[in-house]
Amino acid sequence: MLMDCLVSSAKSSSVIMFLAAAAMVSSWMMTVANVPAIVTGILAPFINHPILLMFIICIIVLLVGTSMDVTPTIMILTPVLLPAVKAAGIDVAYFGVVFILMTVMGLLTPPVGTVLNVACGAGKINMERMVKSIWPFLLAEVIILLLMVLFPAIVTVPMNFFLG
Q: What is the chain's mean pLDDT, rounded?
């Protein structure tokens, strides 16, 4: 029984490592192709409006997050979006918190919703029933994210307090 558990764990780990390796290759290719500078150029009109920039970034991350897992999303989008975030003067830690929450929200959002599919399989229920059950939680997450984007102090003030 232990051997079966180890084999299953090795298979799961190998899939995650393969995704991470593919994401690193994609990230390297984007860096070589100067994609971060191109994206910063596209987002340049919004650099003087950090809240609007964060809303656009949230939409981008949510769209990508609905079809990709967390690790590749982080490894691919962070180097692409970070130059625009820094140019806008947005706190990097604040950006990280919002970025991760949007990525997690993408995991719970149809059509792909990786976590949604795993939960349906584990609970042996259909997708429609699961989606109906999680809407209140997604709505709460949207409200929290809207508040965080509109009022960055929700994240930055406690962080600065605890970090000194």
A: 85
pTM: 0.76
CA distances from 100 to 42, 57, 71 (A): 22, 12, 10
Give the position of tokens 């960055």.
152
**129 vs 133: CA distance, rounded Å:** 6
100 and 79 Cβ atoms separated by less than 8 Å: no
Cα(54)–Cα(76) distance, rounded to whole angstroms?
18
Cα gap 40→56, rounded to integer Å = 12
First to last CA, the chain: 50
Encode pLDDT of 59-74 as tens digits: 988 888 887 778 778 8
What would you report as the CA-atom Rg of the chain, rounded to the nearest whole angstrom?
A: 18
Q: Cis ω on the peptide bond leading into residue 152 (within 30° of 0)? A: no
pLDDT digits 0-9 by tens, 71-115: 778 888 888 899 889 999 999 999 999 999 999 888 888 776 777
Integer Cα distance of 112 and 72 in angstroms: 15
